[in-house]
C-alpha cells in the first residue's frame, strides 16, 4: 500500500462545456493535514464535491484512489461509508434538534424504528469530549455559537468513523479564540491518525497547522509543496499567479475634523431584553478616517454598527450626532438619507437578492434617484450608473442582466459595495467586508477603501481578521462583551495588543505593558 | 451587456425554435392553444363558436381580476387564502346596498371598492405589523369574512339587482370601441417593444432577434384583432373583460416599470436585503394587500352583477383558482418571481378547462381533478426545465 490515503488523478469536470476542473491531481498522505488553497472559483469546492460524492462517479473523468481502492461513489452516503466526510462552509445542523439528535441524524442508534436515546447520549458525550466541547448533549444546536456548531459538525463526522475529514473554510466565521480551539482539535485528530483536507483562505492558519499544501488555480493543480518549504508570500503568489508584494495597498489620506459621534449607546438583544449586546458605547469619527472595529465574535461589534445603521432588530438607546446635529435613525432609510451606508456582514442573507440581476441589485437602495413621473424608473440613467460602477470597481460579470447568484463571492461583494456607493455616503460601514473572498478581490476592495478615504468618506470597518484591521485602519476600537475597551491610534499597534483588549484583560495590565509603545486612550473616545 | 471587448454592434441571439420556447410565456400560450384544440374536437366545434368564446372570456374575468392582484402577493412571498371570501362578502355587500337599501350602481360600487381596500389592509396590517404569517392571517379572514357574509344575508340570496348594476357584468361595449382598442394595442406594443429594444442596443445589451420583436408585435395585433372580431361577431366586447384587461395593463405597468414594482420583486427575492436597502417592507405589504382587496371588490361586483344576485357561496374556492393561475403563469410561491401577463394566461387556462368541460357535460368533480392535475404538471414542468439548466 502506498503512503497516500487518497490520490485523485487527472480529475476533469465540466459544466455545460465549461471546464471547472481541468486535470487536477491531489495526493494526500495518511494522517496528515493537507491544505487546499486557491482563489474563489479555482475549483476547490468542485473538487471536494467530486470527492464527497456530491458529483457522482461518471459525471467527471479521472481516477480517485482511496486506501488503495478505486472509488466509484455515486452519492454522499457512499463516500461516507468508506470514511470520507465533508464539513461544509455553511453549517448544516438542524437548529431545532439537540446536539445528540443532530450527530446521529440519519444514523440513529436503535432498533425496530425506535431510537435508543441513552446510548446516543453516551456516544455523544464521548464525541464531544474528543472535540473538547463541554456542553450538554441535549442543547439545541441553534443555541450554540457558530464556533461550537462547527465542533459539533466535526463530532458528527467522527461519529461516522471518518478516516478523511474535509473541512471547507472552517474558520471563516470563527473568532480568533475559537480558531485556537479548532487548531488544537485538528492537532489531536492528526495524532489519532485521522487525515484532514483543510480548505482555507487564511494563510496563517495553513502555514501553522498543515503539513503539505496543494494549490489549484483555474481548475488545474499548480503545485504541491511541504509547508516547511514555503511562506505566505510564496503561497499567495502561487494562488494568484502573480506577485503581490503588499497585501494592503496603504495610501496616505487626509483625515479631517470630527463630524460624527455616538454617545452612551446601549443595544438590547432582540429576543431577550435582559441581555445587553452593547453597553454604554461612545466614539467619534473623523472625516476621511478609516476606523477599524475589532473584537471577538459576540463582542457586540455587529450589533453596534447595525444599530447605528438602523437595521438591528433589538432596542437601542443613546445619542447620535452628525455634522453637529443630533439625529435619530430608526431604520436603514433614515441612515441612507443622512449619508450613512452599510455593507452587511452576512452577504447571502442581508446583502444580495440572489435571483435578481446584477443591475437591479446594485440600484435597489437608490431607485428614487431614477424617478420619473408616475414613479417610473428611468432605465437609461440607471444603466449608466450600473455600467459606470462595473467598470470602476472591476466587477466581473457576463452581463448586467445576469442573476447575481452566478457571480463569485468577491464580485457579489463588489456589487453590494457599488449599491452602497450609489447612495453617495459620507460614512460607509463595512461589516466583515472580505469574508469568504479570494485574495485578488480582497486586494481590490482594500484599494477601494483607501480611494474612498481619499475622497473624504469615512469608513467604519468591522473585521475579525487582525492583519486586515492593522493593515487598513487609521484607528482601532476594540470591543469586549459589548463594551468599547480601547481606542488605539494605529501606529506601532500589534496583533497582541488588540488581542489583549479583546479578551478583556484588565485595562491597567494592558496599558502598563504597552504604554510606551503607543498612544492609548482607554475606555472610549 | 457583454463586457468582453467587442464592437458595439447590435447583439442578436439567433432566431430559432429554442429562443421561442425558452420564453415561458410562449410555452403557456402553446399549452393553452393545445387545450382549445382538444376541446374543439371533443365538443364537435361548439367550443370555438363566437358565443362560447365570448362567454369564456367573461367567465375568466373574475378569476383573472383576482389573479393579477394575487400575483403581487405571491411575488412578495406571501399568500392570500381569503380572496374568495373577501370577494363573496363584498359581492354580498354590493347586492345588499343595491337591493335592500336601494343605492344606485355608482355609490354601491364606490362603497364596495372602499370596503375592499379596508379589508385588504386589515390582512396586511396583521401580516406586516403584527408579524402573523400570511397563511394564518388570511385563513382566519377566509373564515371570518365568509361568516360575516352568511350573517348579514341571513343565509338568503339577495336579488334582483337594478338594471344599471347588472350592466357592469353583463353589458357589452359598442363594436367600434373594440376596433379602437385593437389600434391602441398595436401602436402601444410597438412603442414599448421597439423602445425597449433601442435602449438595450444603446447599452450594448444582447437583444432578441429583430424578427422576433416584429413577430411579437404582429402577433399581438393579430390576436387582439381576432379577439375583437370574435367578440364583435357575438355581441361586442364584454365590459368585465374590458375592466380586467384595463386593470391588468395598469398592474403590469406598475410591476415592470415603476420603483414600487421593482421594490416588490426585491422584497420577495430577499426581505432582509430589501430592508437593509432602506425599503419600507411593511408599507409595501400593506399596500399590496390593499390592492388585492380592491381587486376582490371589483371581482365581487362583477360576479354579483353577472349572477344578478348576491349569494352566500359566491367566490368559494376562488382564491385557489387565482393562486393556481399565478403559478401556472410562472410565479413561484417562494417569492421574487411572477408576472401579471402570466397570471392572466393562467386564468385563461383555468377558465378554458371549466368552460370546455361544462360544455362536454362532464360532471363537476372531473373539473376539480383535471384542474388539480394541470396545476401539478405545470409546476413540475417548470421546475424540471429549471433543473436541466
UniProtKB/TrEMBL annotation, chain B:
Its main location: membrane. Keywords: Cell inner membrane, Cell membrane, Membrane, Sugar transport, Transmembrane, Transmembrane helix, Transport. It is a multi-pass membrane protein. InterPro entries: ABC_transp_permease. It comes from Clostridium beijerinckii (Clostridium MP). Part of the binding-protein-dependent transport system for D-xylose. Probably responsible for the translocation of the substrate across the membrane. The keyword Acetylation does not apply. The keyword Zinc-finger does not apply. One of its GO terms (molecular function) is transmembrane transporter activity. This is Xylose transport system permease protein XylH. It is found in: Cell membrane. PANTHER family: ABC TRANSPORTER PERMEASE PROTEIN YPHD-RELATED-RELATED, XYLOSE TRANSPORT SYSTEM PERMEASE PROTEIN XYLH. It comes from the Bacteria.
Amino acid at each position: 500500500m502506498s503512503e497516500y490515503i487518497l490520490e485523485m488523478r487527472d480529475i476533469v469536470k465540466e459544466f455545460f462545456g465549461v471546464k471547472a476542473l481541468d486535470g487536477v491531481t491531489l495526493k494526500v498522505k495518511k494522517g496528515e493535514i493537507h491544505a487546499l488553497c486557491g482563489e474563489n472559483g479555482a475549483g476547490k469546492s468542485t473538487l471536494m464535491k467530486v470527492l464527497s460524492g456530491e458529483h457522482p462517479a461518471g459525471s467527471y473523468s479521472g481516477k480517485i484512489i482511496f486506501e488503495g481502492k478505486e472509488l466509484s461513489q455515486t452519492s454522499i452516503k457512499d463516500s461516507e461509508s468508506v470514511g470520507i466526510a465533508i464539513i461544509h462552509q455553511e453549517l448544516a445542523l438542524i437548529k431545532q434538534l439537540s446536539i445528540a439528535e443532530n450527530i446521529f441524524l440519519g444514523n440513529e442508534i436503535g432498533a425496530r424504528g425506535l431510537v435508543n436515546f441513552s446510548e446516543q447520549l453516551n456516544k455523544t458525550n464521548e464525541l464531544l469530549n474528543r472535540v473538547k466541547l463541554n456542553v450538554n448533549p441535549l442543547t439545541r444546536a441553534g443555541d450554540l455559537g457558530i464556533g461550537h456548531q462547527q465542533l459539533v459538525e466535526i463530532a458528527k463526522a467522527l461519529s461516522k468513523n471518518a478516516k478523511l475529514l474535509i473541512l471547507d473554510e472552517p474558520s471563516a466565521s470563527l473568532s480568533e479564540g475559537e480558531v485556537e480551539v479548532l487548531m488544537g482539535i485538528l492537532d489531536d485528530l492528526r495524532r489519532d491518525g485521522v487525515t484532514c483536507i483543510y480548505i482555507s483562505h487564511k494563510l496563517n492558519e495553513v502555514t501553522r497547522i498543515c503539513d503539505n499544501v496543494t494549490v489549484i488555480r483555474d481548475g488545474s493543480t499548480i503545485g504541491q509543496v511541504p509547508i516547511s518549504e514555503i511562506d505566505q508570500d510564496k503561497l499567495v503568489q502561487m494562488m494568484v499567479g502573480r506577485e503581490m508584494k503588499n497585501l494592503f495597498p496603504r495610501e496616505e489620506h487626509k483625515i479631517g475634523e470630527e463630524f460624527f459621534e455616538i454617545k452612551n449607546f446601549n443595544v438590547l438583544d432582540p429576543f431577550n431584553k435582559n441581555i445587553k449586546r452593547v453597553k454604554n458605547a461612545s466614539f467619534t469619527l473623523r472625516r476621511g478616517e478609516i476606523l477599524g472595529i475589532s473584537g471577538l465574535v459576540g463582542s457586540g461589534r455587529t450589533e453596534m454598527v447595525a444599530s447605528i445603521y438602523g437595521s438591528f432588530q433589538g432596542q437601542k438607546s443613546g445619542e447620535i450626532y452628525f455634522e453637529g446635529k443630533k439625529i435619530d435613525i430608526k431604520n436603514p432609510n433614515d441612515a441612507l438619507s443622512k449619508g450613512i451606508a452599510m455593507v452587511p456582514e452576512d452577504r447571502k442573507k442581508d446583502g444580495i437578492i440572489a435571483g435578481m440581476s446584477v443591475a437591479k441589485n446594485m440600484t435597489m437602495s437608490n431607485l428614487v434617484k431614477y424617478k420619473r413621473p408616475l414613479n417610473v424608473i428611468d432605465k437609461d440613467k440607471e444603466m449608466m450608473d450600473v455600467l459606470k460602477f462595473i467598470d470602476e470597481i472591476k466587477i466581473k460579470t457576463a452581463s448586467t442582466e445576469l442573476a447575481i447568484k452566478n457571480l463569485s463571492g468577491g464580485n457579489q461583494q463588489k456589487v453590494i459595495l457599488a449599491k452602497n456607493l450609489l447612495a453617495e455616503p459620507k460614512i460607509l460601514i463595512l461589516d466583515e467586508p472580505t469574508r469568504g473572498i479570494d485574495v485578488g478581490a480582497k486586494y481590490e476592495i482594500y484599494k477601494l477603501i483607501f480611494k474612498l478615504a481619499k475622497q473624504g468618506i469615512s469608513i467604519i470597518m468591522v473585521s475579525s481578521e487582525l492583519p486586515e484591521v492593522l493593515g487598513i485602519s487609521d484607528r482601532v476600537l476594540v470591543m469586549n462583551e459589548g463594551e468599547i475597551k480601547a481606542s488605539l491610534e494605529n501606529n506601532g499597534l500589534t496583533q497582541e495588543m488588540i488581542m489583549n483588549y479583546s479578551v478583556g484583560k484588565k485595562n491597567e495590565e494592558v496599558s502598563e505593558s504597552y504604554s510606551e509603545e503607543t498612544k492609548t486612550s482607554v475606555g472610549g473616545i | 451587456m457583454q463586457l468582453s471587448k467587442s464592437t458595439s454592434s447590435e447583439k442578436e441571439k439567433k432566431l430559432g425554435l429554442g429562443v421561442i420556447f425558452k420564453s415561458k410565456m410562449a410555452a403557456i400560450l402553446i399549452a393553452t392553444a393545445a387545450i382549445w384544440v382538444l376541446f374543439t374536437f371533443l365538443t364537435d366545434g361548439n367550443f370555438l363558436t363566437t358565443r362560447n368564446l365570448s362567454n369564456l372570456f367573461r367567465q375568466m374575468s373574475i378569476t383573472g381580476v383576482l389573479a393579477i392582484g394575487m400575483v403581487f402577493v405571491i411575488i412578495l412571498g406571501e399568500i392570500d387564502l381569503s380572496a374568495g371570501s373577501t370577494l363573496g362578502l363584498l359581492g354580498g355587500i354590493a347586492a345588499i346596498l343595491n337591493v335592500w337599501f336601494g343605492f344606485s350602481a355608482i355609490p354601491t360600487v364606490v362603497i364596495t371598492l372602499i370596503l375592499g381596500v379596508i379589508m385588504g389592509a386589515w390582512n396586511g396590517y396583521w401580516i406586516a405589523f403584527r408579524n402573523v404569517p400570511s397563511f394564518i392571517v388570511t385563513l382566519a379572514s377566509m373564515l371570518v369574512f365568509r361568516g360575516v357574509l352568511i350573517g348579514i344575508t341571513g343565509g338568503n340570496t339577495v336579488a334582483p339587482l337594478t338594471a344599471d348594476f347588472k350592466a357592469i357584468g353583463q353589458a357589452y361595449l359598442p363594436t367600434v370601441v373594440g376596433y379602437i382598442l385593437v389600434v391602441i394595442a398595436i401602436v402601444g406594443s410597438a412603442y414599448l417593444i421597439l423602445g425597449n429594444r433601442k435602449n438595450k442596443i444603446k447599452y450594448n445589451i444582447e437583444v432578441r432577434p429583430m424578427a422576433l420583436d416584429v413577430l411579437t408585435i404582429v402577433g399581438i395585433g393579430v390576436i387582439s384583432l381576432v379577439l375583437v372580431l370574435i367578440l364583435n361577431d357575438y355581441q361586442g366586447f364584454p365590459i368585465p373583460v374590458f375592466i380586467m384587461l384595463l386593470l391588468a395593463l395598469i398592474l403590469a405597468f406598475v410591476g415592470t416599470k415603476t420603483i414600487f414594482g421593482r421594490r416588490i420583486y426585491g422584497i420577495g427575492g430577499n426581505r432582509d436585503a430589501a430592508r437593509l436597502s432602506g425599503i419600507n417592507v411593511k408599507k409595501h405589504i400593506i399596500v399590496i394587500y390593499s390592492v388585492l382587496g380592491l381587486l376582490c371588490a371589483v371581482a365581487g361586483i362583477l360576479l354579483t352583477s353577472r349572477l344578478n344576485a348576491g349569494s352566500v357561496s359566491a367566490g368559494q374556492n376562488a382564491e385557489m383558482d387565482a393562486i393556481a393561475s399565478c403559478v401556472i403563469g410562472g410565479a413561484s410561491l417562494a417569492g421574487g418571481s411572477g408576472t401579471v401577463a402570466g397570471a392572466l394566461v393562467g386564468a385563461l387556462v383555468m377558465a378554458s378547462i371549466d368552460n370546455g368541460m361544462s360544455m362536454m357535460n362532464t360532471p363537476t368533480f372531473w373539473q376539480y381533478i383535471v384542474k388539480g392535475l394541470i396545476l401539478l404538471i405545470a409546476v413540475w414542468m417548470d421546475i424540471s426545465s429549471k433543473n436541466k439548466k
